[in-house]
């Protein structure tokens, strides 16, 4: 990675997803999905397994091209640009599983992410998160030796250190204990207030979605089933039938 971040400035940016669809041959993963995320806003994306949520993130961040439709960041067309180019423009994603430089120390992981970000406030920008996630005593520990929850938290710090304008979080609470899940809340608050970052969260934890997302979008069988405030959307019978009833049964 080079230190230069072409076209990158501090602060959030408007993400626009315009009528995107993704197909693999005859398989339609999702069709005609549109939304916008202003700076500092949070959008939750929920739906049953196989609804296309992770593929949606992969298309927005440049890991996959859309079949049709456009992705724009502050009016600049990101459509079809590769992952590294989209990342350097400010759209950063996290992953469901831990994603760190496994054999490097926690300190070196963070240093590498800060070098990728280029100019910026440096270590001080992530110090509050290091403290919040109780990673200070593990800074010289090899990252893959950390407990799973701390590896997930380190992955979030790396995403923050890359100075995102828009952050795409793919199941950030997956595999975490209840106390650790509250750390995701602290992380989202930090990137919104300190970076002005827009956030998209794909998540199955409905409590977390209700806490963090003023607006949610429901994907089902590749189509947008509902969009709006959580209290309104999560009360709809078609949403409960498609998704929430099954999740609540499993939780019970």
TrEMBL record:
<feature type="domain" description="ABC transporter">
    <location>
        <begin position="15"/>
        <end position="246"/>
    </location>
</feature>
<dbReference type="Pfam" id="PF12399">
    <property type="entry name" value="BCA_ABC_TP_C"/>
</dbReference>
<dbReference type="GO" id="GO:0016887">
    <property type="term" value="F:ATP hydrolysis activity"/>
</dbReference>
<dbReference type="InterPro" id="IPR027417">
    <property type="entry name" value="P-loop_NTPase"/>
</dbReference>
<dbReference type="InterPro" id="IPR051120">
    <property type="entry name" value="ABC_AA/LPS_Transport"/>
</dbReference>
<keyword id="KW-0813">Transport</keyword>
<dbReference type="InterPro" id="IPR003439">
    <property type="entry name" value="ABC_transporter-like_ATP-bd"/>
</dbReference>
<protein>
    <submittedName>
        <fullName>ABC transporter ATP-binding protein</fullName>
    </submittedName>
</protein>
<dbReference type="GO" id="GO:0005886">
    <property type="term" value="C:plasma membrane"/>
</dbReference>
<dbReference type="Pfam" id="PF00005">
    <property type="entry name" value="ABC_tran"/>
</dbReference>
<dbReference type="InterPro" id="IPR003593">
    <property type="entry name" value="AAA+_ATPase"/>
</dbReference>
<keyword id="KW-0067">ATP-binding</keyword>
<comment type="function">
    <text>Involved in beta-(1--&gt;2)glucan export. Transmembrane domains (TMD) form a pore in the inner membrane and the ATP-binding domain (NBD) is responsible for energy generation.</text>
</comment>
<dbReference type="GO" id="GO:0005524">
    <property type="term" value="F:ATP binding"/>
</dbReference>
<keyword id="KW-0547">Nucleotide-binding</keyword>
<dbReference type="InterPro" id="IPR032823">
    <property type="entry name" value="BCA_ABC_TP_C"/>
</dbReference>
């Amino acid at each position: 990675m080079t230190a230069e971040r072409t076209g990158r400035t501090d602060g959030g940016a408007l993400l626009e997803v315009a009528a995107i669809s993704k197909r693999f041959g005859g398989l339609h993963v999702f069709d005609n999905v549109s939304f916008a995320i202003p700076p500092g806003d949070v959008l939750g994306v929920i739906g049953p397994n196989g609804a296309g949520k992770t593929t949606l993130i992969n298309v927005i961040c440049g890991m996959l091209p859309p079949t049709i439709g456009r992705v724009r960041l502050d009016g600049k067309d990101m459509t079809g640009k590769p992952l590294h180019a989209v990342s350097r423009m400010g759209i950063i994603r996290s992953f469901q599983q831990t994603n760190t430089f496994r054999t490097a120390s926690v300190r070196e992981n963070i240093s590498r992410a800060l070098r990728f970000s280029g100019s910026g406030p440096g270590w001080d920008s992530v110090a509050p998160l290091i403290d919040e996630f109780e990673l200070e005593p593990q800074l010289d520990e090899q990252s893959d030796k950390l407990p799973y929850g701390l590896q997930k938290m380190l992955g979030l710090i790396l995403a923050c250190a890359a100075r995102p304008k828009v952050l795409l979080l793919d199941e950030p609470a997956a595999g975490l204990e209840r106390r650790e899940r509250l750390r995701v809340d602290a992380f989202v608050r930090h990137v919104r207030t300190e970076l002005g970052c827009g956030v998209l969260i794909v998540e199955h934890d409905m409590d977390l979605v209700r806490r963090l997302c003023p607006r949610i979008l429901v994907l089902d069988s590749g189509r947008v089933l509902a969009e709006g405030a959580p209290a309104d959307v999560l009360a709809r019978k078609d949403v409960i039938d498609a998704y929430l009833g099954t999740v609540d049964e499993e939780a019970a």
